[in-house]
Amino acid sequence: MPTSIKKSRNEFDKSPRRYRGSSGDQRRNERYEQLLSAGLSVIGSQGYAAASVRSICAEAGLTERYFYESFANREALLAEVYKTQTRFLKDRMLAAFEKSERNSAAFSRAGLQAFFDTLHQNPDVARLLLFEILGVSDTIDLLYYEAMEEFAVLIRTLTESLDLADISGIPNQDMIYAGLVGAVLQIARRWALTNYREPVSSVVESGLFLFSAATNYTANNTP
């Protein structure tokens, strides 16, 4: 066989195989996204404890072998679904911050509005972020606390960089921002447990009170 033909055949054999116009990597990515979506749906409607690999695969329309192609176990899926949805929430908040007026009240209101709107409009996301992520394992607990710390750092960074509020007189500012994030989450949990009885505007005002109180405390206690 001529060398040129051998070379062409070898190059062809090394190229990604395609099926119905998609490469193997593309199909794996599609299955991965299907499983993430199915995981959110099943966990959001049934709870993590009841979310079996079989039920997630049934929701995704895939066999179990494809589940283990992407995830080692249910907990690994939970972690990826959680990280995906925290990014989704953070992106919604950042977009709101970008559009808000550059003052402390408007900035806080915009972020809180985006946060509570997202939970209200996406009950599966709310159940995952507020309840189902808790108490699963030490590894998942660490993931949860890391995410909460990231939100606290985000708010502090944006607040300071835009000079929206000055709480420099408080000895441990990190504690304050972490506390604000935790308090807003608890408001959200209570709201969800009452089946979102209060209107979004009312819940936003409750959260805004906490941020205003932190700012006012510093203003009133600065020499």
Care to describe what's here?
Helices cover 76% and strands 2% of the residues. It has 223 residues and is mostly helical. It has a two-stranded antiparallel ribbon with strand order 1-2. Strand 1 (18-19) and strand 2 form a beta hairpin. Helix 2 (24-46) crosses helix 7 and helix 9 (173-193) runs antiparallel to helix 10 (200-220). The longest helix has 26 residues, at 74-99.
Per DSSP E runs of 2 or more residues, the count of β-strands stands at: 2
Q: Averaged pLDDT, please?
A: 87
Give the C-alpha Rg: 23 Å
CATH homology superfamily of the largest domain: Tetracycline Repressor, domain 2
- Poorly predicted runs: 1-16
Major pleated sheet = 2 strands, antiparallel
What percentage of residues falls in helices of 4 or more residues? over 70%
The second-level CATH architecture of the largest domain is Orthogonal Bundle
Strand order of the largest sheet: 1-2
Number of domains: 2
Order of helices and strands: HEEHHHHHHHHH
Number of helices: 10
Calculate the terminal CA-CA distance, rounded to whole Å: 90 Å
Structural class: mainly alpha
In short:
The chain has 223 residues and is mainly alpha-helical. The chain contains ten helices and two strands, in the order αββααααααααα.
Write the layout of secondary structure elements.
Layout: H1 3-14, E1 18-19, E2 22-23, H2 24-46, H3 53-60, H4 64-70, H5 74-99, H6 104-121, H7 123-132, H8 138-161, H9 173-193, H10 200-220
Antiparallel strand pairs: 1-2
Helix pairs in contact: 2-3, 2-4, 2-5, 2-7, 5-6, 5-8, 6-7, 6-10, 7-9, 8-9, 9-10
